[in-house]
Here is the input.
Amino acid sequence: MNNAMRVRIADLLSTWFGCGFAPKAPGTVGSAAAVLIAAALHYGAGFTRWHFGLLALVSFFPAVWAAGVTAQARKLKDPQIVVIDEVIGQWLSLAGAATLSWKAWLAAFLLFRTFDILRRDAEGFYYFIERSGDSYRFRGENVSAALVERELLATPGVLEAVATGVEIAGYDGRAGLAVVVPAAGFDVAALERLSDCLPRSALPRFVRLVPALSRTASLKLLRRAWSQEGVDPARVSGELWLLDAGKYRRLDSEAYRDVVSGKLRL
Here is the structure.
């Protein structure tokens, strides 16, 4: 099997037969498809929760392989088109249900983001993709903080950076926040290049410039602290910037009120 065919087969499985290519909320689309298929198998073929557990077990390693190949082909750690983890998460949720009632179907759908799947890297090692802490959701999309940080650090004038999400009233999930330690002469407009290398959902809607990043005693970045502080100019220090129509502009109290009120959409 040549590499092109290998990637094509892996993409078919990892995107759950194209669900991952949905223009909006591919994870939700993949999860909905998994629930519909599970319902058809239950009511049409008599599948029980034990069958769904077996189905998840049988699918696990092919899914790990497919997700790894898709990630390697695109040189990304956690491509958003990969939704097979949500599919297996649905089936595992059903396997753990006491009964397969409408409540079980609903619970499985609501829990579609809670299952972590192994990925295989280029060296053949397996690792878990994190679904909390180092990732966040915005408008139904999973955003990898590591992916955003990699592109931030590749931007001229950025010495250090951390990516996280902040809750904004009226939005599903958390909007992206880039906390940046700038070099002398840094121009925030340099970050506008991110639109060429990141999905729209992953673009930092807010940028905060700080002199240093907060870390634990073991030098781990304190993403949660930046997230909890938010981006209200009346409450946080440092320069704040807002992505508006593809350009970064200063985020002042008036602009922040416009964002919260919905007058200015992210």
About this structure: The longest strand covers residues 158-166. The chain has a mean pLDDT of 81.
